[in-house]
Design goal:
Length: 110
């Protein structure tokens, strides 16, 4: 009947007794009820944001176009005309995602 419970190793569901006002009788075997709405952690923030940005065609196109300017035969103008707009878009996106992650962190702590 409840196959989805067995996949986590829970076995058969059993009732849980919650003792109010008796901290010595509390059973510590159960995990805490914690809500986590964050998309990234400290180590996955920058790779995750960059991956999410470069999976869009135009961002990837402008990255490849900017990288192609390192080849002298393909250079059309100054390097900063390609890298500054791309860097600006990425910087704004990274700052926006960082603010959003900080807000989620603060909300989760509340």
């Amino acid at each position: 009947c409840c196959e989805w419970l067995r996949c986590c190793g829970a076995g058969e569901p059993r009732p849980r007794t919650v003792w109010l006002g008796h901290p010595e009788k509390r059973d510590q075997r159960y995990p805490r009820n914690v809500i986590n709405n964050q998309k990234y952690n400290f180590f996955t923030f920058l790779p995750g944001v960059l991956f999410n940005q470069f999976k869009y065609f135009f961002n990837l196109y402008f990255l490849l176009l900017a990288c192609s300017q390192f080849v002298p035969e393909m250079r059309l103008g100054a390097l900063y005309t390609y890298w500054v707009p791309l860097g600006f878009v990425l910087a704004v996106t990274i700052i926006r995602e960082a603010v959003e992650e900080l807000r989620c962190y603060v909300r989760d702590k509340e």
